[in-house]
Amino acid sequence: MERKIPPPLSLALDILRTRQGWTQKELAAATGIPANLLSDYERGRKTLTRERLESLLEAMGLQPSGALRAAMRFLQDEEIREPDPPDPESRQIEVVAADSGRLMADVTRSLMELWTSRGQALEARQQARSLWEGLKRRDPEQRRLLVEKVAKLRNWALSELLCEESIKAAGDSADRALDLADLALRVAEVIPGDEPWRQRVQGYAWAHVGNARRVKGDLPSADEAFGRFQKLWSAGAIGDPSLLNEARVLGLEAVLRRVQTRFAEARDLLDRALAVDKGYETKYLLITQAKLLEEMDDFSGAVAALQKAAPIIESEGDMRFILLLRQNLAVSLCSLGRYGQAGELLPEIEALAVKVGNDLDELRVRWLKGRLAVGLGQWDEAARIFFSVREGLVSRGITYDSTLVSLELAIVYLEGGRLEEVKNLVRQMVSVFQSQGIHREALAALMIFRDAAERKTVTSDLARSLIRYFRRVQGNPDLKFEAM
Predict the structure, then answer these.
(1) Are 140 and 179 in contact (CB under 8 A)?
(2) Where in the chain are the domains?
(3) Is residue 187 pLDDT above 90, yes or no?
């Protein structure tokens, strides 16, 4: 029987939609195109033109040319190569290429090569997406019961996809992220196959369980999960045909080590992750590296990492990620005193925040404006901005960020000789900490600042030392404050 190959544009839509975290229903609502027609496009039952594909990508906030290049990077795997596609497939490539231009020819060829060389893996992943569409309507307990009872759910690619869904959920709900990672682990525990392969898949799932536990704030439990990851991942290495994303799991462990202030381990893990990365984790790894260097007070290194990530992020056209990049870069430039360069980024940051941001992004834009006002010596304006940002963060229960902006506000007050306002501010900070049961060591550090304010010995240098401390203590509650 002749093998049915999904049309390349259809396959590109399927992959890019999934990578962006959009369901067919969500894309249908955004575009007015019925969900069943979108399904027909992806399965090749209806012809998907390049123009229609580009409009769908734009609806998901992607720049078409950059997104197609990203799809190509995601699909390529230099370690596994097969001969050129058979003649009928080659002819199909050339037909599509004639309509789509050189870029689409490259993307199309990559799609076809993937189908030829890794068809079984792609089939498993496509099946996993279909299985997840059915599972996602169930509650967590029902999902777990179905995994125990339904044989087709014992699919390694479903475990992999659930890990991906856990990562996506982490930004909105730590509980949901953990539910999904736990389900991924349960699927991994019941999949068929040779023991080394099963160990590898289980190790992959354990890394995502650890990540979700970290997001939830349970660092000892996260540490234990990554210990299991290390053992299973290593034990199963011989059974993995390079299907699972090693760069991803090494990067996740690096984030935990950064949060634990185990900086040397975090750097080593990031170096290893970048060495094995095939291109589709690079931006995440470089942003993680920049955050690590920032916490090590190496702001020049952080800027360099972000600048290295910029061409990748810009080419993919994900506006949300471009906003994150620009915000982080501007903050690091301010930390270096390069306020002019940071200010040049502000108009684009403001425009992106309006287009794709949320209310927290709006607060972060104002926070940046406050820092720029400091750089210009506009102390009253900086104080006004920092005060409003602090109020917004406190009202949302974002305690540690509100502490950081409060300390920046305290520095502004101190530079203006406004000691009484510093005293009032730090009393409010202590009250917030006590009401929310913040870690003992963090509260003790804040008490040092309060006592210094009451004794009129408080300095801007002490406030800056506390800023460095509070950047680290949230993920490491046993960390003691030492003036730096």
Answers:
(1) yes
(2) 8-75, 138-244, 249-357, 358-483
(3) yes
- The whole-angstrom separation of Cα 18 and Cα 160 is 13
Residue 226 structure tokens = 């990554």
**Tokens 């090749």 sit on residue:** 44
Whether 470 contacts 442, CB under 8 Å: yes
Radius of gyration of the chain measured on its C-alpha atoms: 25
Question: Tokens at residue 316, please?
Answer: 């993919």
Q: Which residues contact 275 (CB under 8 A, 6 or more apart)?
A: none
pLDDT per position as a tens digit, 270-322: 999 999 998 879 999 999 999 999 999 999 999 999 999 999 999 888 899 99
Contact, 386 vs 411, CB < 8 A? Answer: no
220 near 263, Cβ under 8 Å?
A: no
Question: DSSP string covering 263-327, please?
Answer: HHHHHHHHHHHHHH--SSSHHHHHHHHHHHHHHTT-HHHHHHHHHHHHHHHHHHT-HHHHHHHHH
Rounded CA-CA distance 119/117 in Å is 6
Query: Three-state SS for 335?
Result: helix
- Cα dihedral 333, 334, 337, 338 sign: positive
pTM given for the model: 0.73
Q: What is the pLDDT of residues 437-457, one digit of tens each?
A: 777 898 899 999 999 999 999
CATH superfamily of 249-357: Tetratricopeptide repeat domain (1.25.40.10)
3-state helix, strand, coil in the chain (%, to 5): 80, 0, 20
CA 253 vs CA 230, 309, 325, 358, 454: distances in Å: 10, 20, 22, 28, 42
User: Please, are residues 210 and 252 in contact by the beta-carbon 8 Å criterion?
Assistant: yes
Confidence of residue 224 (pLDDT cuts 50, 70, 90): very high
**pLDDT-derived band at 22, boundaries 50, 70, 90:** confident
From the list 213, 215, 205, 286, the residue with the least C-alpha distance to 251 is: 286
Q: Are 278 and 77 in contact (CB under 8 A)?
A: yes
Superfamily of domain 8-75: lambda repressor-like DNA-binding domains (1.10.260.40)
Count CA within 13 A, CB hemisphere, residue 279. 14
Residue type, 269: L
Cβ neighbours for 68, distance < 8 A, ≥ 6 positions apart: 12, 57, 103, 104, 107
